[in-house]
Amino acid sequence: MMRKQLLFLAGVTLLLSGCGSSGRPPIQVLIGAELIDGTGRPPVRPSVVVIAGSRIRAVGDQQRTPVPAGSEKMDTRGMFIVPAFLDSTGQPVLPQADALPPGEAHEVIVAATREAAVRLNVEGETGTIEAGKFANLLLLSADPLQNSRNLAKVEKIMIRGQWFSPSELAER
Questions:
Q1: 3-state DSSP call for residue 3?
Q2: What is the DSSP string of 31-73?
Q3: Which one, of 136, 114, 116, 133, lies nearest residue 125 by Cα?
Q4: Do 157 and 82 touch, CB atoms closer than 8 A?
Q5: Cβ neighbours around 30 below 10 Å, total
Q6: CA–CA separation, 71 and 77 (whole Å)
Q7: How many CA atoms lie within 13 A of 6 on its CB side?
Q8: Which residues contact 70 (CB under 8 A, 6 or more apart)?
Q9: Could you read off the pLDDT of 119-164 as tens digits, one per residue?
Q10: CA-based nearest residue to 83, from 53, 61, 116, 60
Q11: Which one has a higher pLDDT value, 47 or 7?
Q12: Alpha-carbon distance values, 166 to 41, 84, 93, 163, 171 (Å)
């Protein structure tokens, strides 16, 4: 009887301690995409974006940005990452893209992301893809700088570190 009680207590202790888990948020790493970070700087290709929980931990080119051991890696080669567009309440929305001359697409991305965040007074939290900010981004299947209509070619949306499909976001 005593042995059963000890085993039960050991099981409860393991459950309460998280079964040896560190309590840290999972780390996701996007590797290989062309990154248009929303700051107005030139795109980074190929890029690495490291996400811990809901926040971006590191961003940079693939040669200089370390990939944490044990992280969940996602091959994003051939894809394009841009900040999530924001509505008037600061919520990410799917972009509605009209055709623009190629040179203007970068300016439109900056206006719809960084400048929108500044107007909403949330630029310290979102609007660009930079370390410390919320992981709010769009994963596109085509280059929005070549054709602004490609902003509508959204494969996945990340909101605070969680992936959604375009149809899931539309239902929210």
A1: helix
A2: ESPEE--SSSSPPBSSEEEEEETTEEEEEEETTTSPPPTTPEE
A3: 133
A4: no
A5: 24
A6: 18
A7: 3
A8: 27
A9: 889 899 999 999 999 999 999 999 999 888 888 899 999 999 999 9
A10: 116
A11: 47
A12: 27, 12, 9, 10, 9
Residue 85: both structure tokens together: 């567009």
Q: In angstroms, what CA-CA distances link 30 with 75, 126, 141? A: 6, 18, 14
> Does position 170 have pLDDT exceeding 80, yes or no?
no
What is the distance between the alpha carbons of residues 64 and 167, in angstroms, rounded to a whole number?
35
Structure tokens given for 32: 């290989």
What letter represents residue 100's amino acid? L
DSSP per position, 59-111: EEETTTSPPPTTPEEEE-TT-EEEEPEE-TTS-EE--------HHHHHHHHHI
pLDDT digits (tens, 9 = 90+) for 59-94: 999 999 999 999 999 999 999 999 987 676 656 666
